[in-house]
Specification:
The chain is an alpha/beta fold. About 35% of the residues lie in helices and about 15% in strands. The structure holds ligand PBG.
Length: about 350
């Protein structure tokens, strides 16, 4: 295909003719000759400082237990949390998002905002040991704590949006009290960011940030997480509140609303199947944009790698690079510590 000057404004001054602007004068391969050259001209980077590592903390766990659906990812007892953060920090990871698996569930998910709740304790332990060296996000939701497994207050089998806001605000305040740097509302209730921002400000947590799961799709890729966190809904599904995979304009509306309501960072989730959404959000808004490479994405890559069907290391790097290239400033990924350990190593 001919490259015309119209598409190359930098050669539009007449100094180069259209004939010159092409092969054999131009050979893009010159910039691919060695890894050092490739690095010099690379457009996207991947750095451990951009990655957030999820931590599953299980109240009843006696020891670190591998999650069968997510080989290489563990549920931790509270006593192990600080050690896990320390190990990840050695690899250069300094941001974490904490998920709790409580021993007790009820209709209202009261464990999600208990002062002595499993997440509150885990956050406090991390912040006591690491202070500002660890940035702690808390997943602000109810599904791990409710007996029905839905993300809000259920009335007659339906999640009641406005009554759920009160509960989510309580969860956020309790997480801020425990020391979370950011709360991360993921329930997909309308108005949740506004309600949480107001509740945090009222309680004096003006500096606690909000990472909003703004465009969170109803996705089959959350399967392994729901087993890991024991948070699958007991009846129905989440399509009444999470987004429809067929929509992108709706995602832009969700992001806009969250920004107006006070989100500091907006997020698209899952990541790889929604790179178009991510890129559109990046293009349209000036807020930091996060992407969540979810459990199903992790497990697919991990299993294909373990089977030797793809080069595990290269596939992991390529997946995260693609998410950055599409527009993510930061990425939540279960690969965070592992990828950080080999990111810095020189290539061939
Ligand atoms: C809600 C929440 C979920 C995930 C993160 N926060 C589950 C859901 O919406 O069902 C999924 C993350 C993953 O799959 O890795 N608490």
């Amino acid at each position: 295909m001919a490259i015309t000057n119209a598409k190359c404004p930098q050669v539009d001054n007449g100094a180069m003719s259209e004939r010159v602007y092409g092969y054999p004068i131009l050979r893009p391969r010159r910039l691919r000759r060695s890894e050092n050259v490739r690095r010099l001209v690379s457009e996207t980077d991947l750095d451990p400082s951009k990655l957030i590592m999820p931590l599953f903390v299980r109240e009843s766990a006696q020891k670190k237990e591998e999650i069968p659906e997510m080989p290489g990812v563990y549920r931790l007892p509270l006593e192990q949390v600080v050690r896990e953060v320390e190990v990840a920090a050695e690899e250069g990871v300094n941001s974490f998002i904490v998920f709790g698996i409580p021993s007790y569930k009820d209709e209202l998910g009261t464990g999600a905002y208990a002062r002595e709740g499993v997440v509150q304790k885990a956050i406090a332990l991390i912040k006591q040991s690491f202070g500002d060296h660890a940035v702690v996000f808390a997943d602000t939701c109810l599904c791990e704590y409710t007996s029905h497994g839905h993300c809000g207050f259920v009335v007659g089998g339906v999640v009641d949006n406005d009554r759920s806001l009160e509960l989510l605000s309580k969860v956020a305040v309790s997480q801020a009290e425990a020391g979370a740097d950011f709360v991360s509302p993921s329930a997909m209730m309308d108005g949740q960011v506004k309600a949480i921002r107001e509740a945090l400000d009222k309680e004096g947590f003006r500096d606690t940030g909000i990472l909003a799961y703004s465009a969170k799709y109803a996705s089959s890729f959350y399967g392994p997480f729901r087993s890991a966190a024991q948070s699958a809904p007991k009846y129905g599904d989440r399509r009444g509140y999470q987004m429809d995979a067929r929509n992108v304009r709706e995602a832009l509306k969700e992001v806009e609303l969250d920004i107006r309501e006070g989100a500091d960072i907006v997020m698209v989730k899952p990541a790889m199947p929604y790179l178009d959404v991510l890129s559109e959000v990046r293009r349209r808004f000036n807020h930091p944009v996060a992407a969540y490479q979810v459990s199903g994405e992790y497990t697919m890559l991990r299993l294909a790698g373990r089977q030797g069907y793809v080069d595990e290391r290269l596939a992991i790097l390529e997946s995260l690079t693609s998410i950055r290239r599409a527009g993510a400033d930061l990425i939540i990924t279960y690969f965070a510590p592992e990828v950080s350990s080999f990111i810095q190593e020189p290539g061939d």
